[in-house]
Amino acid sequence: MPDQIFSEEEPRPLFSTIGGVEGGAGVDLFIAEDEMTLWGTFHPPTSSSAHQLTFSEFIEALNGLGVTSGFQERSIQEAIFQCNMEHKRLQGVVLARGTPPKGSRPAFLKLEPLLYQHHFPQEKNLSVDYKEFSPFVIVKKGELLARAYPLREGRPGRSVTGKDIPPGKKEVKFFKPGPHTIFAHGKVFAACAGRFLIEGDVFDVSDTLEIKGGVDYSTGHVVFPGNILVGGVIQDGFKLVSGGSITVKETLDASEVMCKKDLHCSAGVIGKKPGIVRVGGQFEALYLENVQVEVLGNALVHKAILHSRLYCNGEIQAPEGCKFVSSLVMSKGSIHVAQLGNEHGTCHVVVGTDFAVHRRLEQVREEYKKEEERLFALKSRLEESGAPRSEQYEEQLREKLAALVEEINTLSNLLFNTKATELVVSGDLYPGVTIEMGWAKLPITSKMRGKVFRLSEDKKSILIDKISAS
């Protein structure tokens, strides 16, 4: 079918007419205002003996009207055939198209589509889950950011009437790469993992994510490969994950917080379900409340640990005035604290134990118990039913139990700190407090003050000394 553009509902000013004399075939011509397109409406002959259109006559007639370029020969030939032979009236057939100009364009860097669209969005009023949506663009090290496009010379265009159209210039946005990018082989890559930024005409990657407000619906969950600095409050229900360190200047309502390096909180950490904080480096906070904190390095808590669990594979420092109440505190290194328990709550303190090994040991013991119960249940069923024993299955269970015993023995050797550790309490210890060091356990039955607890040389008991005056 010939290419048809407009319908009778979209009439255009009549340009000229070809043929149509004495009942012969004719064509009404219409031309665009910019003279870049010529259309025709074909009227078939009224009788078989009337004059018919021919391609050569038609092109000659167009030339006579000043139409000299861009002929759509195939569309014209098909339209003439249908008009002459099938007596069809054809509306808005494209007869000629001009050649549009191609503007000159300077050399420039073009951002990758996803990066460009995030900073210069086209769509509005999108329906999103704002906890999952992030206003930050996070890129990986080595990720492609932009491509270089060379200078392009312009090319003039031509209308269907043969008029030259100047090429003009194509407008582009100019961007320059920042210091944390790498230019190679005509492309720009991220030199590090982090947040993609555009400031003015410079795009770059920052390995630190600074959130001047808090973490809430305006930020969504924050998952970042570098350091995170939060100036406001982290609201309940929002996840905070960092491949570097985290610094929080206000209260941390901890639902799920994980960082590979250090976590420093100028205020307190308050747990919100599930209330878990995992730190790969050092940890510091004003206080802990209703939260579980796991630290591979040292921990520093300034005021209190209340109704919480603190697991630490370094040392725990709690300066003068800091108290542990209604909490479980486990440390592989020594613990220095002002007060354990009070009139309303006790405390359980474990010193010299690796919490990661302890947790895995508990898991393996539980798994051993289940496999052992499975073996006993199998034997009982076979004895009751009189069925032949499945020696192969029994052997598999026994091999698994033996492997678990071997892992338990290995973990047991890694459970306790090989270096001497101590618990130093500069203030009061209240009845009900329980202290564990190695396999020894010491319940506090009366109020004490200013004591140092160490494990005996035979590892069977906990020794109590007064804090020296020095």
Structure, explained:
The chain is of the alpha/beta class and 470 residues long. The chain has 4 domains: 14-97, no CATH class; 108-206, Beta Barrel (OB fold (Dihydrolipoamide Acetyltransferase, E2P)), CATH 2.40.50.100; 209-356, no CATH class; 363-414. Helix content is 18%, strand content 37%. The chain is built from 5 helices and 37 strands. The strands form 5 sheets. It has a 23-stranded mixed beta sheet that branches. Helix 4 packs antiparallel against helix 5. The longest helix is centred in the last third of the chain and has 31 residues, at 355-385. The chain starts with 13 loop residues before the first strand and ends with a strand. The relative contact order is 0.06.
Distance between the termini: 103 Å
* Uncertain stretches: 5-11, 125-131
Number of strands: 37
Strand percentage: 35-45%
Number of helical segments? 5
Structural class: alpha/beta
Please outline the helices and strands:
Layout: E1 14-19, E2 26-31, E3 37-43, H1 55-64, H2 73-85, E4 90-97, E5 108-111, H3 113-119, E6 138-139, E7 144-149, E8 157-158, E9 164-165, E10 176-177, E11 181-184, E12 187-190, E13 194-199, E14 202-206, E15 208-211, E16 222-224, E17 227-230, E18 239-242, E19 246-248, E20 252-259, E21 263-265, E22 269-279, E23 283-289, E24 292-295, E25 299-306, E26 309-312, E27 316-317, E28 323-325, E29 327-331, E30 335-337, E31 339-340, E32 347-351, H4 355-385, H5 391-414, E33 422-429, E34 434-437, E35 440-443, E36 448-455, E37 462-466
Parallel strand pairs: 10-14, 15-17, 16-18, 17-19, 18-20, 19-21, 20-22, 21-23, 22-23, 22-24, 23-25, 24-26, 25-27, 25-28, 26-29, 27-30, 28-31, 29-32, 30-33, 32-34
Antiparallel strand pairs: 1-2, 2-3, 3-4, 5-7, 6-13, 7-12, 8-9, 11-12, 13-14, 33-36, 34-35, 36-37
Helix pairs in contact: 4-5
